[in-house]
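It is worth pausing here to work through a concrete case rather than discussing structure prediction in the abstract. The textbook approach is simple: state the sequence, then state the predicted structure, then interpret. We follow exactly that order.
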Amino acid sequence: MSTSANDDLATARMWDAHAPDYAQLFAPLTGHVARTMLRMVEDRLPPAPRILDIACGPGDLAVAAASLCADRGGGAVLAIDISPAMVALAERALAPLGAHARCEVRDGQTLGLENAAFDAALSCFGIFLFPDRPSGWRAAAESLRPGGFLVTAVWRGAEHNELARAQVEPLMAALPARLTDPPPRPGWAGLATAEGLAEEVTSAAPVADVEIHVVDATLALPSPAAMWRGMVGNPITGSLIARCEPSERATVERAVLAAFERRAGGRDRPLVLGASCHVLIARRV
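Step two, the predicted structure:
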């Protein structure tokens, strides 16, 4: 198996493990953003739209898109994800709308789909995490008919995003120095600004007429412990936590939970955090 294939398999397994917690804890937030993305372009789509959902997760965007097709009496949705567990969740959510949707396990960096087959390709917090983002943007755009819409959501920087600050600040303060010197910088950090996002997407993909909108939302978790569980399972923050020795991890957990409890006002109180993202809309040239 090639190095790339091994990496893809490892990525799929991480998201498989995180899928139940993601669906329970974070999908209420990301699903809201996904539905907002679709709403922004639905009146610009043809009467029976062909819609591609890339990195579909548990299926919130695909369900909204399939419901739109059902309401219009035509159209179809293809939801894809590299994680079989996420695809299984999406299949379950889409079952009542089966005539208008199907799910497949596919790598969004290559897709392997017919070019110019879709009226819209949407990715809610998906492509921006790909190891090879330029290939992801290009594959998404090439799946579109001329004039079709590429729509994606990417988190804004921590200065605009309480959700990011609440996780990153206590985690970085508590991690051992060997894991934070130099401070880790997410690979997608350059996309956190509207300018950086537009530049990367238009450089990689045949799109134009770019619009970027700010979308704010709220994440409500039942407790500080739920947030810690979500961070441990998340392939991004979890990969840092996993590098700790057992004694280090215990120290990190106590410190991060204490920070969450201060924000919540107690260990049995809900943790409510604001979040902010950019939604990019562009047309296939």
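Step three, interpretation. The longest strand covers residues 207-221. The chain has a mean pLDDT of 96.
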